[in-house]
Amino acid sequence: MMKSIFKTDPSKVECINSIYQMSDMPDKVLDSEDDCYIGYEEIGEGYSGITRLTLPPDAVECSKLIAEYVKDGILLDLACGDGAYTVPCAKLGMKVIGGDISNKMMSLLIERAEKNNVSLDKVMLCRMNALDIPINDESIDCVIANSVLHLISHPEKVVDEIYRVLKKDGVFICFDDAPGRGAYGGNQYYDATGEIYRRYWEYLGKIGIKEKKYSWKFDRNGYCETKFNKEERLISWNHEHVEKVEDIFLPRLSSRGFSAQTTVPEKEHKEALQYALEAADKRFGEGWRKYSVSFTQGDMVATVFTKGE
Fold first, then answer.
1. 276 lies in which domain range?
2. Are residues 129 and 278 in the same domain?
3. In whole angstroms, what is the distance from residue 33 CA to residue 280 CA?
4. Separation of alpha carbons 270 and 244, rounded Å
5. Residue 233 — pLDDT band, cuts 50, 70, 90?
6. Ramachandran assignment for 186, one of left (phi > 0), alpha (psi -120 to 50 degrees), beta (any other)
7. Average per-residue pLDDT for the chain
8. Which end of the chain is more exposed for a tag (fewer CB within 10 A), N or C?
9. Is residue 35 scored above 80 in pLDDT?
10. CATH at residue 100
11. Tens digits of per-residue pLDDT, 193-223?
């Protein structure tokens, strides 16, 4: 059923580690007169730190709402990455197409599913480019695209592609924290992470390397409202979470997992990281890696964009 909705028969393309190679586009394109985008092929395990094999509590809550819209249809998790959303959705029995430009990140998705005993029998993983989704028009019931639009120089083209592949009355769901999410007890955490990040880019700035950012100011809702009908739904829940510097921030920075680090060469990255860590040791002593912040993760807003006639 899912294979029949692709522009090209998946059985006729290479399949690597259960991932259909539906695109031969590069993992990233950083300098082009046309479309530029950032992929995470070189990042891998460092992106999610110690949480990479868990089922994220926020994604688990979101998956319940997603299931209401998918029903017996097909979900496209565009830029699915290491499966933070794909795996919880698969656990609920949804049919999912997980698409990402990075084979490495999707291999981590498979590992996450195995670790949590989640079957991927109803999941089809495909290497694809969000700017040219290899799926026929009006074939998908629901699309999610978490943390991807800001990685692309022309994110409106991705929204256009999402609109194209959605069926009439299909939905594109976006998730955001509702006002009121709080962090407390984290002054040392923010002092340390801020110092490290600042020192890292301070070193690189001296040798002419700057942060790479594409579409951080893209008005997602404004553009989507020109194409879709919009509805907001509140996901009410409460979750206490403690995070140390060494849990997510440090592994992500160390593996060039922040999108702004994409253009930093490996040699210069290692030098800048060493410079930043030495500065942290000098200012805070050896214990800064254990500095923690406590989050109260409260309500989330699901913005549901519905494709009309």
1. 183-210+244-292
2. no
3. 39
4. 22
5. very high
6. alpha
7. 93
8. C
9. yes
10. 3.40.50.150
11. 999 999 999 999 999 999 888 877 899 999 9
For residue 122, what are the CA distances in angstroms to 74, 86, 306? 10, 11, 24
In this structure, are 188 and 85 located in the same domain? no
Which residue type occupies 139? Answer: S
User: Is the pLDDT assigned to residue 45 strictly greater than 90?
Assistant: no
Locate 301 and state its tokens.
């807003």
Structural domain count of the chain: 2
